[in-house]
Write a structure and sequence with these properties.
Order of helices and strands: HHHHEHEEHE
Number of strands: 4
Largest sheet: 4 strands, antiparallel
Shape: elongated
CATH superfamily of the largest domain: Lrp/AsnC effector binding domain/regulation of amino acid metabolism (RAM) domain
CATH topology of the largest domain: Alpha-Beta Plaits
Number of helices: 6
Radius of gyration: 20 Å
Strand content: 15-25%
Helix content: 25-40%
Number of domains: 2
Length: 155
């Protein structure tokens, strides 16, 4: 069970996990040692799944990014769907992949160095899969907002 201190800490470290316990103590009314213990517990319990570094958009702005909407075959069996999802999960160029409701079944964000790299990846992952009925590609023109945070609240 998470208490209000845990929730406050999680909201803060989602935005900047590099803050020291001393800095976090400015916003959470606990001692730095108590904050450090809580963060260790949250990591050990899997509440904090992992810590990553987000690169500046200006470093990666010249890369090709594409949202790909995937429609599965009407007769796609569970094994075929699982195999496709596994390939998407393992592909380094796929940044996220969600199963969705509506006329498409899956949406994935591809991040590639070039159009050629995107074509190779989509051929390997999608065109070659008998599970994929069709897919639509929407190329990203620019990033307006990227906020991979979940704002937690008490209650």
């Amino acid at each position: 069970m998470l208490d209000r201190f845990d929730i406050s800490l999680l909201n803060l470290v989602q935005r900047d996990d590099g803050q020291t316990a001393e800095v976090l103590a400015n916003n959470v009314p606990l001692s730095p040692s108590a904050i450090a213990r809580r963060l260790r517990r949250l990591r050990a319990n899997g509440i904090i799944a992992r810590t990553i570094a987000l690169l500046s958009p200006r470093l990666v702005e010249r890369r090709l990014r594409a949202l790909v909407l995937i429609q599965l075959s009407e007769h796609a069996d569970l094994k075929g769907k699982d195999a496709l999802e596994k390939r998407l999960l393992e592909a380094p160029c796929v940044q996220f992949c969600y199963e969705i409701a509506g006329p498409h079944d899956i949406v994935a964000l591809f991040d590639c160095e070039s159009m050629s790299a995107f074509n190779d990846a989509s051929d390997e992952l999608l065109v070659s899969s008998p599970t994929v009925r069709r897919y639509e590609t929407h190329f990203v023109k620019r990033e307006v907002k990227f906020a991979p945070f979940v704002e937690l609240s008490e209650g």
